[in-house]
Amino acid sequence: MVKQNQYSIYIKEGEQISNFLALIGANKAVLHFEDIRIQKEMRGKVNRLVNCETANLNKTINASIEQIEAINKLKQKGEFNKLDDNLKEIANLRLEHPNVSLIDLGKMLRVPIGKSGVNYRLKKIVQISKDS
Q: In the predicted model, is pLDDT for residue 3 greater than 70?
C-alpha cells in the first residue's frame, strides 16, 4: 500500500494542542491533556520553590559559619575584647544562636535593631577578623 500526500502537523504550545483537540471533537483527550498540563505546572512550581528555599538556607548557613569563624578567630587572637559593646553583643548572640535569622537576632538585642543593622554589625566583625 502506497501513501501519497502525507502531511504532519507539529504543535508545540499546550494551549494550541488543547484548541486543536477541541476542534477535532476529542473532548476527553482535552480534559486528560489539561489535567496532565496542570500537574506538570504544579510540580514545576513546587520544584522552583524548594530550590529557592534550599539556596536561601544554604546562603544563611554559610554566612552564619563565616561569622562564627570570624568571632572565634578574634577571641583566639585576643582581639574580641577590643570590639565595641554593640559588636560584642551581636557576636555573643550569634555564638549562642547560630541558626537564628538576622531579624530574630536583632530582636534579641538590648536595644532591638532591624535586619540591615544586624547584617552591618556582623559584616563589620568579619571584616575586622580579616584585617587582624
A: no
Query: 41 in a domain, yes or no?
Result: no
**DSSP code of residue 83:** S
Q: Is residue 47 part of a domain?
A: no
Total structural domains in the chain? 1
Side-chain-facing half-sphere of 35: CA atoms under 13 Å? 6
Residue 2 lies in a domain: no
Model pLDDT for residues 68-115, shown as the tens digit of each residue: 999 999 999 999 999 999 999 999 999 999 999 999 999 999 999 999
Q: Are 21 and 29 in contact (CB under 8 A)?
A: yes
Side chain identity at 114, as an amino acid letter?
A: G
Report the largest interatomic distance among the alpha carbons of the chain, rounded to a whole angstrom: 93
| Domain, as residue range, for 113 | 62-131
Could you report the per-residue pLDDT of 38-66, keeping only the tens digit for each? 999 999 999 999 999 999 999 999 999 99
Residue 112 in any domain: the answer is: yes
